[in-house]
Amino acid sequence: MSNETGNAKRMSMIVSKGTLDWAYPPFILATTAAAMNLDVTMFFTFYGLTLLKKKLDLHVSPLGNPAMEMPMLGTRLGMPNILAAIPGVDAAATTMMKNLIKKKGIASIEELRSMAIEADVKMIACQMTMDLFEYSMEDLIEGPVLGGAATYIETASKSDINLFI
User: Fold this and answer.
1) Residue 68 counted as domain residue
2) Of the candidates 7, 3, 2, 9, the residue with the CA atom closest to the CA atom of residue 38
3) What's the CATH number where 20 sits?
4) Is the residue at 73 inside a domain?
5) Is the pLDDT of residue 75 over 60?
6) CB-based contacts of 67-73 (< 8 A; 24+ apart in sequence)
């Protein structure tokens, strides 16, 4: 695929969320775009930066997610926000989601992340977020580079597709 200058199409995205359910969209979109020969850059900032940690311990929270429905007992059970106040509900929601992912044969985030690296998806760890949450490069997987807002904006200004997730 090429744009009017004959260069490969480019896609950039800001990854700002770090829960299990929010980890899937950026990695699925990045690996799919890379498979379609797009140059892909992912900019991990704030809670999305946790997706670059060597050891992932991702959770799901039904709080603030009224659309969250889990298939149970032949129906879909909605997760009202009030349930999130009960101790153990986040852990139960996380376990249910992980079991559903496994049952459906969906790749793990670790697998999708490895696929993205193998597909040469560029990953930028936000320097400000690294400083704010006191992370070091040793906390992260190999591959990401450090960059700030200007680095992302430079990339985004040259991209055909820009996403915020």
Assistant:
1) no
2) 9
3) 3.40.1260.10
4) no
5) yes
6) 68/21, 68/93, 70/96, 70/97, 70/100, 71/100, 72/96
Q: Report, in angstroms and rounded to the nearest whole number, the Rg of the chain calculated over CA atoms.
A: 17
Residues in the chain: 165
Domain of 42 in residue numbering reads as: 10-59+108-164
Nearest to 48 by CA among 111, 118, 109, 115: 109
| Per-residue tokens: 28 | 């699925």
d(CA 87, CA 81): 13
Report if residue 156 sits inside a domain: yes
The long-range contacts involving 161-164, CB below 8 angstroms and separated by at least 24 positions, are 161/9, 161/10, 161/11, 161/12, 161/33, 161/38, 162/11, 162/12, 162/13, 163/11, 163/12, 163/13, 163/14, 163/26, 163/29, 164/13, 164/14, 164/16
Domain assignment present for 114 = yes
Could you report the per-residue pLDDT of 110-164, keeping only the tens digit for each?
999 999 999 999 999 999 999 999 999 999 999 999 999 999 999 999 999 999 9
Domain count, the chain: 1
